[in-house]
User: What shape does this take?
Amino acid sequence: MNVIFLASDGWNPAVGNDASGILINGRYLVDTGYFLADNLKRAGFEPQNIEHLFFTHLHHDHYMALPQLLYWYLQTGKELSRLHIYGPRKDVRRVVDLSIAFLQAGADKPFYNNCSYPSVHELEPGDMIELPDVEIDTGSSLHPVDCICYRFEERKTHKVLGITGDTFYRENIPQTLHDCDILVHETALADSRSDINDPPVCLHSSIDISLLTARESRAKRLFVIHFAKSKAQSVLSSAAELSGIEVVYPELFVPYEV
Ligand SMILES: [Zn+2]
Ligand SMILES: [Zn+2]
Assistant: This one.
């Protein structure tokens, strides 16, 4: 299994970066960020070839490029029904509906006649997703909107990739994302420190929280994302002081073997 990071930055990314977007085996995309089409092309992929899109949660920095992906399908004549979109039950269908309405904004008639509808999978934490080459377990993260964490296990190799989405610490996350070869944890609060009993209002994580989840889930490597590259050195130094786990701030557009 391999993973390519299309983005690593926060909600207000530097030029050349984006806020979210993780590509697994060139076919499974987790969150879209803002600049999905550009990002996929830079990584050597065509947007309309993505057929499985997993949303951790429906905050703007994670879904704003959904209309862009749908547009690529429509412009290349590919049936939208071939696109599977997974996400929290509370929000995912509404965001898909709004995205399609946005693309059909013609005042007199819709831009795209008789277009099909994506296959929307409204997830509850604990749902399993069975695909030919991967088995995906889900759980709930802790964020101001419903957020799903995903555990991808490749059937052939039993390699495991865990993705937290945006979250503070929650006991069930290490249970869902157990024994990851790579755990991808958001670290939006960078090298600050958090009190586990006093979560910040934003419900994001600092490096000590990311490491706590990594330790409890027995992750082999921890990849930290969702903060500016300018903070990477201090986050990695803090991580080295706190723990022996290998911590990585990923390079963009290059495959990492899980
Ligand atoms: Zn968020
Ligand atoms: Zn976010």
About this structure: The radius of gyration is 18 Å. The chain has a mean pLDDT of 97. The longest helix spans residues 92-103.
